[in-house]
Every structure is written in structure tokens, then in C-alpha cells.
Design a protein that fits this description.
By secondary structure, the protein is an alpha/beta fold. The chain contains 15 helices and five strands. The protein is 62% helix and 8% strand. Its main location: membrane.
Length: 363
């Protein structure tokens, strides 16, 4: 049975070979080319690490323009930067205000020492580079702008030091393509395949033969898993050889959440096949879920801090947490609990399956 299904699903079907094995790798190449150097016009999200009443007054004035969003960071500022919560971090030294006042008094003497303020940004991200350039100009003229308000024209220079944090978009994209491969097999192959077999009456005929219908489902599911891993093997080779992604970084984490994702989406796909008798309905619903899970799940850019509606949808779909869990080894994870929401989807799917499959008309 398994051999016959392999021949049918892979050997005879050129479409299956392309969509489930070759397409994930092709999509990696396309998206890496498009998103790797894309420029975005975004508001300036700036993290503040440290305390300064002088800088607070500056940021208050800038916040009025609605173009600047300043976020006070108490710890793990690099995590906030890598996750996309902020584009740049201003690292303020201790006792900045007193140093600034001292620098002001000594600005015309040989005892003058500039204040060093660190700007931490990600050079590979265009929005981070642009924000860094804007903030650096503000810091350069900060003394003039602040003391104009104070009716003082003396200058106390602020020197900023640029520091970078590495962001690798290929590493960020790699987990997304893994989950996209799983969803492609489920929504465009596994689920419609079962629906078409139901419509043609094949499953009812199996039910009255000595061959167990459960064995058929098991064999069909194994074929879907083989299709997923066939695509992932090629994806791993391309990511490691072409894009230099360390695909074996915390490999046990990748394997666990990949298998977890396969189980969750196969259960969801099978539930759809059980609920809908019309194959066209499963195709339409599969396309809708694929697009929602992909773009709302933060596959290609972080959506956690987007509009309330998008953030809410992102927080209740399983793909968000599976992709985010696969990003843990690369330092781009932004969520905490990666098991709860996908498990709820899994349990719900299993419940519906058991409630519906006891009816012969749903075979």
C-alpha cells in the first residue's frame, strides 16, 4: 500500500514533486533575494537603555511628532533589537546628566572630555540603519537644541559610538520555509487528496473490505510525512551550502518542533477533510488558512508589534509559535510559550475527528 501511494503521489505526479519538494527551496531563493535588501518606510522605534532627564526632555519633544516611538529598556536590549521591537538602542552611560553639565562648564578648557553615548543597531536592516543615522544627527546637535530651550548658547559636545548587532535574514527565513513546506503538503496535497477519495467513494469501498481503513489513513499520512522530509532535505542542503546557515544549530530543537508542526497541521488537515465532503471546499479553505498562517504568523517579518487586529490573530494561530520556536537557536524568538496554542489546535482537531468519523457518511 505504501509503495503504491509513493508511486502515485511522487513518481506519477509531477505537480506533487514540484510543489512539495522543489518549491520550498525555490521560494527560499526568491524571498531571500527580495527581502534581503528591502527598504521600508517605518516610524522610528528607539530603545533607551539608561536614565537621563536631559535626554528624556529631548525624547518628549520628538514624540510629539508621532514619528518617533521611544521605549525604555531595562535589560536585554539586544533581544529587543533583534526581535524588531526597536530599530536602534541608545545606551546612555551612568551619570550622564552630571557628565553633560561638567562637559558644558569645561567646554572651552583643556580639561574638556566628550561624553560617549553608544548607538546599537543592525546594519543588515535598512530601517535600523536609517534610524541610526537620524538619531546620530539628533545626538550631534543635542547640546544646541537643549540649551536653546534653556537660553544658553554654550555647547557641550556629545560623542556617540556606533555598535552593531548581527541580523541574518537567511537564518530568520529558514524556519519559516520549514513550516511553509509542512503546510504546503497538508493543505495542497494531503487534505484535498482525502477529500477527492471520499468523493469518488474509494474510502467507503475500503470500509467493507478486509483491508483496514485505518491502515489506509496511516499509509497516506506516512506518505505526507515523506513528502515533507523530502523537501526539507533539499532545503537543508541549499541553506547550508548557498546561504551558509548553520542548519544543525540546536538540531534537536529543530527536529522536535518540525515533528510537532507536522502533527498539528496533519491533524488540522484531516479534520478539514472529515468536515467537508466537497474537495473544492477543502482547497479553498486550505488556501485561506495557508495565507493567514503564513503572513499573520510572522514568517517573513515580525508582526507582534503590528496593529491590534494583526497582533491578536498572530497570537492565536499555531504557525506563529512553531516558527518562533524554530527561531530560538538563532536568537530571533519573540514569544515565550510555544506549546500551548498549537496543542489547543491539535486537541480541537482530534476532538472534531472523533466526533465525526463515527458516521459512515463521513468516510
Amino acid at each position: 500500500m505504501i509503495g503504491a501511494l509513493i508511486k502515485e503521489e511522487l513518481t506519477r505526479s509531477k505537480e506533487a514533486l514540484f510543489w512539495f519538494v522543489l518549491f520550498p527551496t525555490l521560494l527560499t531563493v526568491i524571498l531571500s533575494s527580495i527581502f534581503g535588501n528591502i527598504e521600508k518606510n517605518l516610524n522610528f522605534n528607539v530603545g533607551i537603555f539608561g536614565n537621563s532627564k536631559i535626554i528624556d526632555k529631548i525624547t518628549e519633544n520628538l514624540s510629539d511628532s508621532n514619528q518617533f516611538n521611544f521605549i525604555q529598556l531595562n535589560e536585554n536590549f539586544e533581544e529587543a533589537l533583534l526581535s524588531g521591537k526597536v530599530d536602534v538602542v541608545i545606551k546612555i552611560p551612568d551619570n550622564f546628566d552630571s557628565q553633560f553639565q561638567r562637559s558644558l562648564i569645561l567646554s572651552k578648557t583643556n580639561l574638556f572630555k566628550p561624553i560617549r553615548v553608544e548607538l546599537v543597531y543592525i546594519p543588515e536592516k535598512d530601517e535600523s540603519k536609517i534610524t541610526k543615522d537620524v538619531i546620530s544627527q539628533i545626538l550631534t546637535t543635542m547640546d544646541i537644541e537643549y540649551f536653546k530651550v534653556s537660553s544658553s548658547w554654550k555647547e557641550a559636545k556629545v560623542r556617540y559610538v556606533e555598535k552593531t548587532s548581527t541580523f541574518n535574514y537567511y537564518e530568520y527565513l529558514f524556519p519559516a520555509v520549514i513550516v511553509m513546506s509542512i503546510m504546503s503538503v497538508v493543505f495542497f496535497g494531503y487534505t484535498p487528496g482525502i477529500s477527492f477519495l471520499k468523493k469518488r467513494g474509494v474510502l467507503k469501498r475500503f470500509a467493507v473490505t478486509p483491508y483496514s481503513l485505518n491502515k489506509f489513513y496511516l499509509s497516506y499520512t506516512i506518505i505526507a510525512v515523506i513528502q515533507v522530509f523530502s523537501g526539507l532535505i533539499l532545503l537543508y542542503i541549499v541553506e547550508a551550502s548557498v546561504y551558509k546557515v548553520n542548519v544543525f544549530n540546536h538540531f534537536q530543537n529543530t527536529i522536535f518542533y518540525s515533528l510537532f508542526g507536522i502533527i498539528v497541521f496533519l491533524a488540522l488537515g484531516y479534520m478539514m477533510a472529515v468536515l467537508f465532503k466537497n474537495p473544492e471546499s477543502t482547497v479553498v479553505l486550505g488556501n485561506i488558512l495557508f495565507q493567514v498562517f503564513m503572513f499573520m504568523g510572522g514568517f517573513y517579518f515580525n508582526v507582534k508589534n503590528s496593529s491590534p487586529i494583526i497582533s491578536f490573530i498572530s497570537s492565536v494561530i499555531p504557525s506563529t509559535y512553531i516558527v518562533d520556536a524554530l527561531r530560538i537557536p538563532y536568537g530571533y524568538s519573540v514569544y515565550k510559550n510555544h506549546i500551548l496554542v498549537p496543542s489547543l489546535w491539535l486537541l480541537f482537531s482530534i476532538l472534531i475527528i472523533f466526533l465525526k468519523r463515527n458516521k459512515i457518511n463521513d468516510l
